[in-house]
């Protein structure tokens, strides 16, 4: 989840939100949980913009050991400039390196490079941002206004789908791919749409006007709702949480939310987790549509610059990175389902990371 250090540059004032409650019935099946909890943790570190110093850290849960930059150790070269997203699909991990405009495909267990894919259009970098998967296809949003469709067997791009301006995160729900079009490179005129792509025809079938500008983060629940965080451009402004019905693709509601800029909205079961503007970890119940907790952390742990989140759906462990000062190495913390710090190394946190630890990837056994 790359923010290009926007967390350190943009402050969005926010107040605690009050959410109305309603009953929701589950209409889609739960996702299949991993067969085992995570036994390893990858951290994709963005590095500093245009410094060519992205890195991939790894922590072994079994041995409690850290490899500071496993990609460079294994492959003898660096990742490139501004690692933006990483996800595991099957036996491979796919890493989007934004400014270098590459997709690194590596063995998920060893980080050994399988293929580096350059995403360009007539020699112009596309700048990949986010990755999701469906039926042996990887979908990659890029700042040039496209979603690449990558075949995960041949590792070649089948087609490019034109969407909105500067697309960011994506989510799959009800047979459709939803793409948050930020328009974030045009500060004076950001986008305010979510593209809807039919996964059968691989075509954009509509753009949903969410009225709020600069949508970046997007997620889905098991009740037919799509959640979009839109940040606007005015200062001070409150981020908006926009909820879209995945049957009609119509906006159901829009609410103020105390989210920090660029935080992921991670839905696991009936709970969504996000980083607040005050640097806390909030929990929102997607079934009742009320805030369950304004701070999940119960042991007094305080972050300097909380940056990325991940949740193990098997153990309910919560992982949080701290970018500290956005220019030096960060840290990874883990908390149990009661919000208590799991001080595995007796130093208050799990591991030291690289600079700007923006994406957490859990490696299952």
UniProtKB/TrEMBL annotation:
<protein>
    <submittedName>
        <fullName>YncE family protein</fullName>
    </submittedName>
</protein>
<dbReference type="InterPro" id="IPR015943">
    <property type="entry name" value="WD40/YVTN_repeat-like_dom_sf"/>
</dbReference>
<dbReference type="Pfam" id="PF16819">
    <property type="entry name" value="DUF5074"/>
</dbReference>
<dbReference type="InterPro" id="IPR051200">
    <property type="entry name" value="Host-pathogen_enzymatic-act"/>
</dbReference>
<dbReference type="InterPro" id="IPR011048">
    <property type="entry name" value="Haem_d1_sf"/>
</dbReference>
<dbReference type="InterPro" id="IPR031815">
    <property type="entry name" value="DUF5074"/>
</dbReference>
């Amino acid at each position: 989840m790359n923010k290009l250090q926007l967390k350190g540059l943009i402050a969005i004032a926010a107040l605690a939100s009050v959410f109305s409650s309603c009953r929701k019935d589950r209409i889609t099946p739960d996702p299949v949980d991993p067969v085992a909890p995570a036994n390893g943790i990858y951290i994709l570190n963005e590095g500093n913009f245009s410094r060519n110093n992205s890195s991939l850290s790894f922590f072994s849960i079994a041995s409690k050991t850290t490899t500071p930059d496993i990609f460079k150790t294994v492959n003898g070269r660096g990742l490139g400039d501004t690692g933006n997203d990483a996800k595991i699909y099957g036996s491979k991990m796919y890493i989007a390196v934004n400014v270098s405009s590459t997709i690194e495909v590596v063995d998920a267990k060893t980080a050994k490079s399988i293929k580096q894919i350059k995403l360009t259009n007539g020699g112009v970098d596309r700048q990949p941002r986010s990755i999701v998967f469906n039926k042996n296809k990887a979908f990659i949003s890029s700042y040039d206004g496209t979603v690449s469709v990558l075949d995960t067997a041949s590792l070649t791009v089948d087609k490019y789908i034109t969407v909105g301006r500067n697309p960011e995160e994506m989510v799959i729900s009800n047979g459709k791919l939803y793409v948050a079009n930020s328009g974030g490179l045009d500060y004076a005129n950001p986008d305010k749409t979510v593209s809807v792509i039919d996964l059968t025809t691989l075509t954009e079938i509509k753009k949903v006007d969410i009225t709020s500008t600069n949508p970046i983060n997007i997620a889905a629940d098991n009740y037919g709702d799509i959640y979009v965080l839109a940040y606007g451009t005015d200062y001070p402004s409150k981020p908006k949480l926009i909820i879209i019905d995945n049957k009609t693709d119509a906006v159901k509601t829009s609410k103020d939310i105390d989210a920090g800029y660029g935080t992921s909205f991670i839905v696991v079961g009936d709970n969504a987790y996000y980083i607040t503007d005050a640097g806390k970890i909030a929990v929102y119940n997607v079934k009742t549509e009320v805030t369950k907790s304004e701070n999940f952390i119960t042991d007094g742990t305080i972050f300097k610059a909380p940056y990325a989140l991940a949740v193990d759906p098997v153990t309910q462990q919560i992982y949080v990175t701290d970018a500290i000062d956005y220019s030096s190495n960060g840290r990874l913390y883990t908390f149990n389902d009661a919000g208590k710090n799991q001080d595995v190394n007796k130093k208050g946190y799990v591991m030291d990371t690289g600079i700007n630890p923006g994406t957490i990837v859990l490696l299952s056994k």
